[in-house]
């Protein structure tokens, strides 16, 4: 009999597979609206929170949500094309992430958002939501999809997802991003 068959299976995948426990908020940043989603401390459930109008009171409302949910970081979708390239929209999103991290004093992680809005639209249509009603929740559903993707990436890899925009770096150096896993 093979000794391989008798070897016990190690249930611990090792230190490289870790999850950083804590609540996260996710922002699906659009020109007119920002979909907001959150997850529980263990990353078991991502859920829609609300849609915030993108305008003069945006940061005030986002600050209130940060105070309410107490996330340790904020996830934002990074627009890329289907080949993973970043263009003008990505540069604008990096600027938005810098504004968010400075205003809310939280790290931001920019995570690839390819196809999340399309997937959210399909899910809502499959659930029987008509297009008028979908508009009011599509941004929240997209934020949920981005957050679920970020959670899955971290749980599978054991590394924080996306590109880090650190509030400490932003405050001490006045700008710049750090690559983060």
Automatic annotation (TrEMBL):
The record's InterPro entries line, in alphabetical order, gives: RNaseH-like_sf (IPR012337), YqgF (IPR005227), YqgF/RNaseH-like_dom (IPR006641), YqgF/RNaseH-like_dom_sf (IPR037027)
Q: Name one GO biological process term.
A: rRNA 5'-end processing
| Pfam families in alphabetical order | RuvX (PF03652)
Q: Where is this region: Disordered?
A: 155-181
Keyword tags: Cytoplasm, Hydrolase, Nuclease, Ribosome biogenesis
Q: What is its EC number?
A: 3.1.-.-
Q: What is its main location?
A: cytoplasm
Localization recorded for this chain is: Cytoplasm
Give residue ranges for domain YqgF/RNase H-like: 22-120
Signal sequence span is: none
Instruction: Kindly indicate whether the keyword Nuclease belongs to this entry.
Output: yes
Alphabetized GO MF terms: hydrolase activity, acting on ester bonds; nuclease activity
Q: Does the keyword field hold Cytoplasm?
A: yes
**Protein family per UniProt:** Belongs to the YqgF HJR family.
Indicate what this protein is called per its UniProt record: Putative pre-16S rRNA nuclease
